[in-house]
Each structure stands twice: as structure tokens, then as C-alpha cells.
Amino acid sequence: MHLFELLFKVEEMAEKGVQDNLDPPSVAIFAKAKNDAWVLRRMNKAELQSHVSKGKWG
Q1: Per-residue pLDDT, 56
Q2: Buried (b) or exposed (e) across 48-58, using 16+ Cβ within 10 A?
Q3: Total structural domains in the chain?
Q4: Is residue 55 one of the residues assigned to a domain?
């Protein structure tokens, strides 16, 4: 669960970077970081659910 929490923080920080709107390349980097963190959180959640359904977690 620690990874999930860290990725959520990355999303939050990246959103702040997008909102700062320093310049287009910076916004693109922050937007990619936000999207990638979201994708990784979803992958992490799916993997945990898979382990739970197999009785290998919690």
C-alpha cells in the first residue's frame, strides 16, 4: 500500500506543477507524471485485487 500512497502524492504534486503553468515543456512533464502515476496506481490496485482473490493477500 505504500507504493499506492506515494503514487497518489506524485499525482497531487504533478497537478500543482500543471497549475503553476511555468511553460509548455514543464506542463507536459507534469501532465505526463500525473497520468503515469494514475496508470500505475490502477495497475497496483488491480494486482492487489488479484492477490486477494487468490487468497495470497490480507
Answers
A1: 80
A2: beeeeeeeeee
A3: 1
A4: no
